[in-house]
Design a protein that fits this description.
There is one protein chain. The N terminus is likely disordered. The protein is α+β, with helices and mostly antiparallel strands. The two termini are about 25 Å apart. It is elongated. It contains 11 helices and 4 strands. Helix content is about 65%, strand content about 15%. Strands 1-2-3-4 form a 4-stranded antiparallel beta sheet, with no helix packed on it. The chain has 2 domains: about 325 residues, Up-down Bundle (Outer membrane efflux proteins (OEP)); about 80 residues, Outer membrane efflux proteins (OEP), CATH 2.20.200. About 30% of the residues are buried.
Length: about 450
């Protein structure tokens, strides 16, 4: 669907005092949506935390390989012993009182041959890679939506302030006209008081709109980490980018395949299944291949001899171990792992339902937003005609001042709602792609192309 985002004619009706801030907002120092997104990537604490967690998960995944690789250890030691040996009465054994030193050094290696628990641990580490990638994707998509929402919140607040100021100027003109008519006797004091009341009300609305703009600007600056931002405005006459016309079922199907939350839930289920395998492996044997070379040197003999000796021993072998009984620890661990596997399966089902609901909600919300844009465009044209008719009726005496004031209020309210509805459609497109799990930074480019150069 393509609709004009702003019309040139209504903007030309705005007072110069309103148009000047809008003109300065599109200066060379202004930032586009893509510029602000890139700045947010380097500053936003939530995104930086997700990136650090991603790097940690990558390192943790590599740790799982260690359980399948050989282990090699080098050992060395030296012991100084003071031997005192005395003959028992009647024994021919000699009396000894001497020191001796024992030095040892060796290198030993072990290679797992059959350890099902280690293999399950390795496969879990690979699932950890999927978890890390899905979590990082989710963080990036969340940042895109948060930045875009904050960006258009500022633009919407600027529009609200501009329209309120334009309405204030129009009410001020109507107030001056009512005062002149009262002075010449062609209008009652009621017209003047009604115009004054409306002027005071619009003044209060202007203060609220100005404060709202300041708050929205601060929120964007905190997200980016830079003060004095000037978001580029939508070009006059720009058209909304076309919306993908896929059916709602196609969007839901995409979300089931690509949504980061579902990818994490599936990976968690796979990890839980492997944890059950690890628990079951507690009943299975383990087989390792061992290899070693050790040397022992005895200086000044040992406890049984006084001769200095050295022994070098090379070993190679296969070690098997079969657990028989571990105090029911293995059985209880299997029960625990099976229950956690059921929990992960239920979590996946719940996540699928939630993602499908969010996707349908985003799709219907975007459709409703497009309908609102069409309705507000028609309402804007009708309100403009009604205002002109009421002004003419007031001049010829068939309408009173309050009719003109109400028409002005309705027109500017419609303009404000139309501008916000268009921003909501742009955000709705991003949220729909986020719900389907296919949102990327490149999706900001069509929106960025709408901004003033």
């Amino acid at each position: 669907m393509s609709t004009p985002l702003f019309r040139a004619a209504p903007l030309r009706r705005l007072p110069l005092a309103v148009l000047l801030p809008l003109a300065f907002a599109s200066t060379s120092q202004a930032q586009s949506l893509v510029d602000i997104y890139e700045m947010a990537k380097g500053h936003d604490a939530t995104f930086q935390s997700a990136r650090s967690q991603y790097e940690a998960n990558l390192a943790k995944a590599d740790q799982g390989k260690a359980a399948l690789l050989p282990t090699v250890a080098l050992s060395a030691g030296a012991t100084r012993t003071q031997l005192e040996s005395y003959a028992i009465k009647g024994s021919p054994a000699p009396t000894q009182d001497r020191p001796y030193t024992t030095q040892t050094a060796g290198i030993n290696a072990s290679q797992p041959l059959y350890r099902p628990a280690n293999l399950a641990t390795y496969r879990q580490s690979q699932k950890g890679l999927e978890l890390a990638e899905a979590a990082m994707s989710q963080a990036e998509q969340d940042l895109i939506v948060r930045v875009s929402q904050a960006y258009f919140d500022v633009l919407s607040a600027q529009d609200s302030l501009a329209f309120v100021q334009a309405q204030k100027a129009a009410v001020a003109e109507q107030l001056a006209s009512a005062k002149r008519n009262f002075e010449v006797g062609t209008a009652t004091i009621t017209d003047t008081r009604e115009a004054q009341a409306r002027f005071d009300l619009v003044t209060a609305q202007e203060i609220a709109a100005d404060n709202d703009l300041r708050v929205k600007s601060v929120a964007l600056e905190l997200l980016v980490g830079k003060a004095g931002l000037k978001p580029k405005r939508i070009q006059s006459g720009a058209k909304l980018p076309a919306v993908d016309v896929q059916s709602i079922d196609n969007w839901v199907a995409q979300s089931e395949q690509h949504h980061p939350g579902l990818r994490q839930a599936r990976a968690n289920l796979d990890v839980a299944k492997l944890e059950t395998e690890k628990a079951t492996a507690g009943h299975k044997p383990t087989v390792d291949f061992t290899l070693g070379y050790n040397s022992q040197r005895n200086i000044n003999g040992t406890a049984v001899t006084t001769a200095s000796t050295q022994a070098n021993v090379a070993t190679a072998g296969i070690t098997a171990n079969l657990p028989l009984f571990a105090g029911f620890a293995t059985q209880n661990r299997i029960r625990e792992a099976a229950a956690l596997e059921d929990k992960a399966r239920s979590d996946l089902e719940g996540a699928q339902r939630q993602v499908a609901q969010v996707t349908r909600t985003a799709y219907l919300g975007l459709q409703a937003g497009q309908g609102q844009v069409k309705a507000y465009e028609a309402a804007e044209a009708s309100s403009q005609v009604a205002l002109e008719a009421n002004k003419l009726g007031y001049q010829v005496g068939v309408r009173i001042n309050i009719d003109v004031l109400n028409s002005q209020s309705q027109l500017f309210q419609t303009k404000r709602d139309l501008a916000k509805a268009r921003y909501d459609v742009l955000i709705g497109q991003l949220k729909l792609r986020q719900a389907a799990g296919v949102l990327k930074a490149e999706d900001l480019q069509p929106i960025n192309a709408l901004l003033a150069p």
